[in-house]
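User: I'm writing a tutorial on reading structure tokens. Could you give me a worked example: one chain, its sequence, then its tokens, then a sentence or two explaining what the tokens reveal?
Assistant: Sure. Here is the example chain.
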Amino acid sequence: MKLGNYWNEAELLQGVRENNEHAIKTIYKLHFPTVENFIRQNGGSVQDAKDVFQDGFLVLYRNVKNVDFILECKIKTYIYSVCRRIWLTELKRKNKVPSVVNELDEYVNVDESGIEEYNEHEMKLSHLSQCLVLLGEPCSSLLSDFYLNSLSMQEIAKKMGYTNADNAKTQKYKCLLRLKKIFFEKEVLKRETI
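And here are its predicted structure tokens:
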């Protein structure tokens, strides 16, 4: 069966492994409607479905990048299973009962560790984002430009009005120290409230 420009699922997975935009869009086009239908039948919105599908796809993407990973079912079944697990976990967290969980749907038990690892990664990113906000300007912009936007120190110096790249580098170092302090203080507060 032809899947977009791909002749089989192995080629589609190889496309994902190579970050091929067409392969990723093909998976989205082929499998999003099933996930959307499940989530909307169980109290979610189209935006919820998009968010969950994105999370589910990232679990697939991370696993596909692992050379030891072997997909033992169809891509559709795997993505649906991961997204189903994510959405049911979200409903449980909100103390909501799913309304339509058809156990006859084709799904597999997915490895919880992949989903938990993804959730833990997302929580750390969220924590880091909050710390960047607390860090304030100009540090927040400087670190974002360097680490997220991949600007060189020369570009940052010019953009932020530093006299040269060395001054920008010194400022970056000071900002990192402040960010580290905020991050660990916030981490300690979080542990104390648990």
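What the tokens reveal: DSSP finds eight helices and no strands in the chain. Helices lie at 9-17, 21-41, 46-65, 75-93, 112-135, 139-148, 153-160, 165-193.
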